[in-house]
Amino acid sequence: MPVTEARQDDEAIEQLVRQAQAGDAAVFDEVARACYDRIHRWALVRTGDEDDADDVTQAVLIQLHRRIGQWSGRSRFTTWLYRVTMNAAGSWQRNVAARGRLAGRIGEDTEVPEAGGGDPAQAAERAIVMDLVRSFFEALPGKQRQVFDLADLQGFGQSEIAEMLGINPATVRAHLFRARRAIRARILALDPTLREEIS
């Protein structure tokens, strides 16, 4: 989704949230539907397992229903929702570990922007690069994976990511640099002819 559309979508969701906070209980279903996909995506990036992401998403929707009044509007709603999701995912992972179950791998359907338009040969090369990026995504350390997903796959700005993750913007830049460098190095090790494509 283009950044402009995402911002418009965020503003529409914030209006719905304010209506829900004002006592319009019926509008909460609209908020839940509007937020479901992004909650699930964030949970999947954190847990690395489709089933766990489904469970975390349901837990977040329950928390959202109970805690929607806690969003004060001082930060973007998506920032607040991201923190709720990460807390829920962290709790879920601790519970899984306590039961002796380890999180699985990142789902194969993790979204990656599709290359569009232009020369079919170039589009095919870009598609190869994106497939490689997807395959190397799961190998990144957790924080780098989160930052890479939020910045390069979802289009959030570095200051927004810093707020969402509760870290310094310089730390965001460092994680993003390391993630990009790691993915680029893995791609080049596999196929040095792609050097210009990913430069």
What does this structure look like?
The chain is 72% helix and 0% strand. The chain is an all-alpha fold and 199 residues long. It has two domains: 3-98, Orthogonal Bundle (Rna Polymerase Sigma Factor, Chain: A), CATH 1.10.1740.10; 120-198, Orthogonal Bundle (Arc Repressor Mutant, subunit A), CATH 1.10.10.10. The longest helix has 22 residues, at 77-98. The chain is elongated, with a radius of gyration of 18 Å.
Descriptive keywords:
72% helix; 199 residues; mainly alpha; Arc Repressor Mutant, subunit A; 2 domains; 9 helices; Rna Polymerase Sigma Factor, Chain: A; elongated
What is the fold's blueprint, element by element?
Layout: H1 3-21, H2 28-47, H3 50-67, H4 77-98, H5 120-137, H6 142-153, H7 158-165, H8 169-190, H9 195-198
Helix pairs in contact: 1-2, 2-3, 2-4, 3-4, 4-7, 5-8, 6-8, 7-8
Quick overview:
The chain has 199 residues and is mainly alpha-helical. It contains nine helices and no strands.
CATH superfamily of the largest domain, by name, is RNA polymerase sigma factor, region 2, helix turn helix motif
Beginning-to-end CA distance, first to last residue: 23 Å
Q: Please identify the structural class as seen in this structure.
A: mainly alpha
Question: Taking Cα atoms only, what radius of gyration do you get, to the nearest Å?
Answer: 18 Å
Low-confidence stretches: 99-116
**What is the CATH first-level class name of the largest domain?**
Mainly Alpha
Strand content: under 5%
- What does the main sheet amount to? none
Mean pLDDT: 77
Q: What is the quaternary state of this protein?
A: single chain
The strand count comes to 0
